[in-house]
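User: Study the shape:
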Amino acid sequence: MGKHLVGATSEILPGQRKIVTVEGITMGVFNVNGTYYAVKNSCPHQQAPLCVGKVSGTTLPSQPGEFLYGREGEILRCPWHGWEFDLTNGHSLFDPNRCWVKTYEVEVELPEEEQPKLETFPVSVEEERVMVSVHR
C-alpha cells in the first residue's frame, strides 16, 4: 500500500472526518485536535460502517461515586451496537488486547509551493580559509 492523497487539511478540520476508499479499502480519516488518524470503515463485530458512528469521549478511571469524563473526540462508537474504539490506536475500549479495528498511517505534507526552501551559497577554500560568496 503506497501513499495516496485523500484531501486537504482544510477539508478535515478538528472534530471532522472524511470517508475515503484507497486501494479498495474504505476508511475514515479523522482530525482529533489537529492530529490525523485513519481507521478501517468496518466494525469487527458485524462489519457495520464504523466510521459513520458518533465520535465522543469516555469515562476515565476514578474513585467510587466519582465520574470523570475525558478524551473528547478520541472515541469512535459503532452506529449499530455501540462498540467503542480508540481512534488513536484502533483498540476497543472493552477488550483492547483481543478486539481492534485496523488503523492506517496518516501523514500531512505541505504542497510543493509551500514547502520551506533552503537558500544555498557557493563555498570555496582559499589558502586554508573558508569563503562564502553571496551574489544578489
